[in-house]
Amino acid sequence: MNSGRLLVFSQVLLILVAFVTTSRREKKTFKIAVFYDENHDNSEDLVSYAIDTINRQIKSSSFQFEFSITKAEKSQSFKLTNKLCEELDEGRIALLGIGESSIFKYLQSISSSLKVPYIAIKWENLDEENKILEKLLDDSDEESKTESNLINMHPPAHKIVKSMIDLIDFYKWDYITILFQESAGLGRIQDLIKLNVRKYFKNRNGQAYNVNSKFRVQVRQLSKDISEWIYLIKDVKLSGSSHIIVDLNKKYLNLFLEKAEEVGLMTSYFHFMFTTLDLAFLDYSPSANITALQIFEPNDTQVRSIFAEFNLKNMVSQKPMFKYMPSEAVMIFDALSLLAKTIESQNLVNIIPEFPKASCESETPWLYGTEFMKHMKNMKFNGLSGNIEFDVYTGYRKNLTLCIVDKTRTGVDLVGYWKDINSSKSIEIVRSYSKEKDQVLDKLSRNLIVTTKLEAPYVMRKETPNNETFIGNDQYKGYCVDLLVKISTICGFNYTIKLVEDGVHGALVDGKWNGIVNELIEKKADLAVAGLTITYQREQVIDFTKPFLNLGISILYKRPQKGTPNLFSFLSPLSIEIWLYMLAAYLIVSFMLFVLARFSPYEWQNPHPCKQDSGVVVNQFTVLNSLWFTIGSLMQQGTDINPRAPSVRLISCVWAFFTLILISSYTANLAAFLTVQRMQNPIENADDLSKQTEIKYGSVRSGSTENFFKESKIQTYERMWNFMSSNPDVFVKSTEEGIERVKKGGYAYLLESTTNDYLRQRDCDLMQVGGLIDTKGYGIGLPTGSPWRDQISNAILQLQEKGDLQELYIKWWEKEGKDPNQKCENIDDKKKDSASELSLANVGGVFVVLSIGLCLSFIVAILEFLWKARKVSNDQRPFSKQCSNGLKKTMESFFRAEFQNPFTKNQKIDSDFNKLRFDEDECENFVKKNEDPKKFKTKNSKFDNYLSNPYMYDSDSGPRSLKEKMIEDFKFAMCHHKTRKRSKNIKNLNLNNEIRLIEPKEYINYFEKNSRSSSLPPIDQYKRFLISQKTRNSMNRITRKKIFKKCDSYTDHNCIESTSDDHYEKESIQN
């Protein structure tokens, strides 16, 4: 029984051994030739482990890989060629080249001629990629385009460079430094520069990549002597560049970072970007920002599993272990996976061996090589390095994704991804803000150095009455100090305030920055919290947060003292030219009044209304009266002179209108001048300041205000800068010095408006002249690339939204350090409140109206003259003769107040009439001597008849005796009408030396003799006057002319009565 069982077991065992032996014989082996350069000495272990792993992962188990590995040395190209030919004679289906050595181009050329697939793992420079593309694009044969036997597992150079440029744009770097050492590194750096200057990369369709990036670059080569690196790194620090791209062999990376730390570059203000894909190999715990690209995720589980197994195998075999998975190991795994998946997917296990091998001796290519390469290029799968996909023409990878990683104290952290898309969204950040903040705090020391300068009210030393001393941050107070407290609370950091040594904000002097700006450039301070103006020039070397104060440049000047009021300040409302024009207008109008009044006949009046035919007329507008009338109207008072002629009235109205407007304007402006206390300020704005040289002006040396005028292209500010630069003594070292010079007088200080406001509210002797010259802001300065910038900017925005910034401003500008009882007049902050003097442009129209009125009145006076001459000429003289005579008399009247009317009809006037006059004394004596009416007796009957005439009676007093009548008539006529002003002698009337009355007989006889004369002598006119004077009340409107023409004498009572009755009857009928 037992023997039977043993026999059965032996038969089964033989069958299994036979089956296994048969199976092993059926499993195909594909050989691969591997070549590596001197920079990849560990490639043998990696390839060996990769092939073992891939062989285990092949699902069909119908084939396996074997490899031979050879180190490719540049000096042994002939030996390498023989080695390659030997490998091909053994039937290698593919070649794997690891490294960037130039010898690989030779191997690639041989494999290409023999149609053996060549898989490369190297950085291909842009020039080489473009050459391949150009060759393919120039070849019109579509078949030849597919014969490329190259596949590169390394991401293409143009993809890596583009991802770096996108990353630079994402970080907003505008000035970078590139450091390299080897020639291969120079090629990679050139690719970066070429794309940056828009040397486009052509794709397989002949199109170009449009890389929209532009930044300043400085390129420096690291010496082969490592000891000299430190000097180059110092130069980089002094250049002000805080963004550095480093291309080094990964075995030198740690050494480089050590040198950088010695110089002081390993701080949070510097950001390094390495071209290596193996950032994890950095055995360093940096405080600086270090970024790189990686072809696999740091926490990929599959990569970690393979890496752990690889290290375990090395540990068992007592070989060196890796701390991190190298990138070429991942690409080797993916290259072997590509071969395996291609053979499996295309069922090439039995097809490949059927084709004859390639041979160098016979120069026979591998007939299946082209088809095999085509299958590999069409493969698509997810490998350890992400998506595996190739361009069928070039063999370069496409549609790949690169990982963006940062080096931290614990290793490598994933920041985001770069995707192979031509879009602004090619970068995807996956790190959260809270995690980023934690990393920032981890990199930074929580105690920040804050640089500042003493300047009220921003930073000041505390003063205590007990002479108490403070230390540290407690010794400072001010707006910036309070602001720093609030920001540190929000952002969560501690700080130490440090005063800048030279006490200036910072300016570029002789090519080097000083002051606070220099502290930030040299990274001696983490923050600068002061009255630091944000300018373009400063932003080129340091970073700024959002502004916490908005302001501008203003002018500080000594407030002028109130001047003594001018005695003739009432003249101020009108300019000097207006006063002169008014004086000229006054004289011209007065002269025109005088001329027109003389020229117009209607302005000449009979001084004796009761004696219309006397021929004597008087003009009231003498020279003095004309001047008086005009000045009376101007002074709004009026005169007792009333113009009669239309022309004179017209010019009077125009003058009244002129004076109305002018006086009203003067009164309104005078009120403004008298109610406003004007200060005599020699300058009102920057333009006034630039146009004079008596008052000097300047600013703080090496400040933003000085730089503003220096760089300004506005004419006014250029003129001001020319003055300041030619007078260096106008610049001051501090604001305190500037204030002292302002108070001494003759100096204007240019400073920020916020400081100006603070000083003016505490010193009433200071004032601001004009408005703001420019607009700008104060910001917190930080070293370039500081990770605190965004967080502090967000804190400032929070404080602004809550109103905390405004509260701080009110506290330090309006409350702290200010005497509550002190109130300064803010007239300098207002617009110019004094009235402006009126010029000719304001009141010129009234002068035009006045001129038109003068011309119009003169024309009317001429028409009056002509009309009157025409009217008179109808009865006596021709029109032309009357005009010439009237004009002659008018000219003579300019020098006389009374003369014979040139337009009267009775122009023959006896001179005796002028002689029949009494003076006033004679008139009074005559009245006194003849008060007794009994002395007069009637001797003539005709005179009695004359007395009996009813028209000789006054309607009120009734009939009177002849003597009474004669005495009253003579007194009235001679004393009151003819002797008031002129003649003193009585002649040519046969009068005795003693004064006596004219006898009634003489009176009547003389009248009767001359009653029919057409031109009565003066005495007859006088007699007629007496009669008409006494009869006008009874006769009403009957003129003496009508009566005397009909009646022979005054004794013809019936004639006179009938004539009067006829007149009354006619008048009644008319009424």
From TrEMBL:
Residues at the site labelled Interaction with the cone snail toxin Con-ikot-ikot: K710
Superkingdom assignment: Eukaryota
Transmembrane segments: 578-596, 616-635, 655-676, 840-867
Keyword ATP-binding attributed: no
GO cellular component: postsynaptic membrane
InterPro entries: ANF_lig-bd_rcpt (IPR001828), Glu/Gly-bd (IPR019594), Iono_Glu_rcpt_met (IPR001508), Ionotropic_Glu_rcpt (IPR015683), Iontro_rcpt_C (IPR001320), Peripla_BP_I (IPR028082)
Record-annotated site: Crucial to convey clamshell closure to channel opening: I683
Signal peptide: 1-22
Domain named Ionotropic glutamate receptor C-terminal: residues: 447-815
GO biological process, one term: cell surface receptor signaling pathway
Localisation per UniProt entry: Postsynaptic cell membrane
Protein name from the UniProt record: Uncharacterized protein
Organism annotation: Brachionus calyciflorus
